[in-house]
Amino acid sequence: MWTGLGWPLIRLLLGLAVGLLIANILEALRWTRRLSAVAAPLVRSAHLREEVGAAFALAFVSPAAANGLLAQSHDSGQLSDRELTLANLLNSLPACLVHTPTLFFLIWPVIGTPAVLYVGLTLLASAPRFMRRGGVLCAVCPSLSVSPRQCMC
C-alpha cells in the first residue's frame, strides 16, 4: 500500500509545497507589482482605460478578481460594452498563464521530467489562440475613443 498510494501522494504534496513556496517568495519580493509595468504598454497601445490595466495586472494573480474589477467598472459606467469585451479578451492571456505553474507542480511529481515537455507543448498549442486574440485587439482597439485623461497614455 505504501508504494501504491503513500509514495505518490507524498511526491504530489512535495510538488505542491515547492510551487507554493515559489509563489510566496515571488509575492514577498513584490514581483507581482512589477507585472503592472507589463500592463502599461499593452493598455496604452490598445487605447484602453486605466481600469483595464489594473485588471490585466490583477489577472496574473487572480483571473476571477480581475473579472470582478472589470464588471464593477462596467456597472459604474467607466467602461462601455465594447471596452469590457476587449478588456476581457486582453485578460485571457494572463488568465491562461496563471494556471500553468499549478499544472506543472501537480504533474511534475507524478511523471517527472516529461512534465516540462507536456507544459511546453500545452503553451505551444495555445499560441495560435493568443495570436488571434492579439490580432483582434490590434485591429479594434485603435478605434476606441478614450480621452487622454482616462487613458494610460
Describe this structure in words.
The chain is mostly helical and 153 residues long. The chain has one domain. It contains seven helices and no strands. α1 runs antiparallel to α6 and α3 packs antiparallel against α4. The chain is elongated and about 60 Å long. The C terminus is likely disordered.
Question: Which SSEs are present, and which pair or pack?
Answer:
Blueprint: H1 2-28, H2 31-45, H3 50-59, H4 63-75, H5 81-97, H6 100-111, H7 114-140
Helix pairs in contact: 1-6, 2-3, 3-4, 3-5, 4-5, 5-7, 6-7
Q: Structural class of the secondary elements?
A: mainly alpha
CA gyration radius, whole angstroms:
19 Å
For the largest beta-sheet, the strand count, sense and barrel status come to: none
Could you give the distance between the termini?
62 Å
What is the 3D form?
A: elongated
Would you list the SSEs in sequence order as H and E? HHHHHHH
- Which oligomerization state do the chains in this entry correspond to? single chain
The number of distinct helices, counting runs of at least 4 residues, comes to 7
Helix content: over 70%
Mean pLDDT: 76
Strand content: under 5%
> What number of domains?
1
List the keywords.
153 residues, single chain
Précis, in short:
This protein is mainly alpha-helical and 153 residues long.
